[in-house]
Every structure is written in C-alpha cells, then in structure tokens.
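Progress note, sequence design subtask.
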C-alpha cells in the first residue's frame, strides 16, 4: 500500500504541475490576442475554460480587475493548495505505512 500511495502522490503532483503550466501559458497567450483557430490556442482554451467558467460564475465581477481576468490566478492558488495539502498528505500517509 505504501508504494501505491507514494505513486499516487507523484502522479497527482505531476498532473497538477502540468496543469499549472497550461494555465500560465494560457493566461500569457490571452494577453496577445491569439488566433482563435490556432490548434494550440484551441487546446489551451479547451482545457482551461471548463475550470475558469465556474470560478468566474461563483466570484462574478470580482474576477475582473481593470479588464484583467483573475480566474487563472485563482486556479493557480487552488493548484498550489492541492499540492501542499493533498499531495503532502498522500506522501505522509505513504511514509507512515513504510
């Protein structure tokens, strides 16, 4: 069971880190008015918008400051929280089972 939890922690940490970078790149690209038909732009929007949309809906106009969408910042903070809380707890549980 130790190896399963340790492996799950590694995989979850890797997925969260990968998504963190997708959010960062997507936010940066949105500042330069990208071609909406570009496959990379479509991919980035396809994997980030389903996460951004509920945050925008939940927090409403607080998500826009001077025309800047802050929902990527909220997602980055949530990813950081998950990495420090969930991944760290999985690693601790795995260590206790060792």
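Output:
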């Amino acid at each position: 069971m130790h190896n399963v939890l340790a492996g799950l922690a590694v995989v979850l940490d890797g997925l969260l880190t990968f998504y963190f970078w997708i959010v960062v790149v997507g936010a940066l690209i949105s500042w330069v008015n990208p071609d909406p038909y570009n496959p990379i732009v479509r991919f980035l929007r396809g994997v980030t918008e389903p996460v951004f949309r509920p945050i925008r809906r939940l927090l409403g106009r607080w998500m826009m400051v001077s025309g800047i969408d802050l929902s990527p910042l909220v997602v980055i903070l949530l990813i950081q929280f998950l990495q420090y809380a969930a991944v760290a707890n999985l690693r601790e549980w795995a260590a206790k089972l060792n």
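The longest strand covers residues 64-65. Work on this subtask will continue into the next period as scheduled.
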